[in-house]
Amino acid sequence: MLHELPVKDKSDAEKLLKIAPFRRGVRKTLPHKHNNYFEIIFFTAGAGYHVTDQVKYEVRPPVAFFVRKDQVHFLDLNEDVEPAGYVLIIKSDFITLCTDKELKQLLSEASSMSSVYLEPQPAITTLFGLIEQENNRAHPYKNQQHCLEGLLKALLVKLVSLSAPQPDHQARRTDLYHAFREKLGLSKPIKNNVAYYAALLNTTPQNLNAMCRKQSGQSATGVIAEFTISEARRLLIYTDNTVSQIALLLDFGDASHFVKYFKRYADVTPQSYRLIHS
């Protein structure tokens, strides 16, 4: 039986939205993903890093991190600084039932972002608190969904509008690069084919390769290899899949090809890597 990465579901089965203060004592989490909700992690205090799809973001409060479903992320926070803030979970059904088109657009904009670093904003903390208070009422009432939608809309307007704008040419270049990384993160399995992703992004392999070199210093093939090897490492460490099973999950025709590919980039065989990190 093949095993995927750990999938966490922190949402209440009966609630379409969940919010709670950041849990005291939490410093590190294992790489994991969520398959049915969008998450906002807001820090008012803390230090360390939040890592999403292999990209490391500094926890420099006040800051909000956005985690789309199926993105792999984890926290690596400093032990000597007590983190504080909120974790807000928005389930897919909440968005489906939402009648406010502007709110849906705001959620779409937020889901395209990874982080928003802010100036001190008491209003944002207040909005998180109001959403928590409204969502955790002992006795829900008829129009509570509309009230929550209004508060969430106000919060997202604040967060999205306070994100740092980029010049148009830089935004386009960054968007293509991050869209490529997003496609790789969502691929099941990852395809070792630059032309395949270029077609999905309505660009040419040459243009995609040029954008990758400008943004990351490596070719599009190198970015694909980075994702493939990272996924292989996670599967070797966090699952009991055999090397042959992992090869299949990563779209390799046979295990020997996967072993050679892994060793080329990781300098050790998959089995040796697993033994080293077991």
Write the layout of secondary structure elements.
Layout: E1 17-21, E2 37-45, E3 48-52, E4 55-59, E5 63-67, E6 73-77, E7 84-91, H1 92-97, H2 101-111, E8 115-117, H3 122-135, H4 144-161, H5 168-186, H6 194-200, H7 205-216, H8 220-238, H9 243-249, H10 255-266, H11 270-276
Helix pairs in contact: 2-4, 3-4, 5-7, 6-7, 8-11, 9-10
Assign the structural class, choosing from mainly alpha, mainly beta, alpha/beta, alpha+beta, or little secondary structure.
alpha+beta
Helix content: 40-55%
Instruction: Evaluate the radius of gyration.
Output: 20 Å
* Sequence of strands across the biggest β-sheet: 1-7-2-5-8
Regarding quaternary structure, how should these chains be classified? single chain
CATH topology of the largest domain: Jelly Rolls
User: Order of helices and strands, N to C?
Assistant: EEEEEEEHHEHHHHHHHHH
Give an overview in words.
A 5-stranded antiparallel sheet has the order 1-7-2-5-8. Mean pLDDT is 84; it is low at 1-5 and 164-174. The protein has 278 residues and is of the alpha+beta class. The protein folds into 2 domains: 17-161, Jelly Rolls (Sandwich), CATH 2.60.120.810; 168-276, Arc Repressor Mutant, subunit A, CATH 1.10.10.60. The chain is globular and about 60 Å long. The chain contains 11 helices and 8 strands.
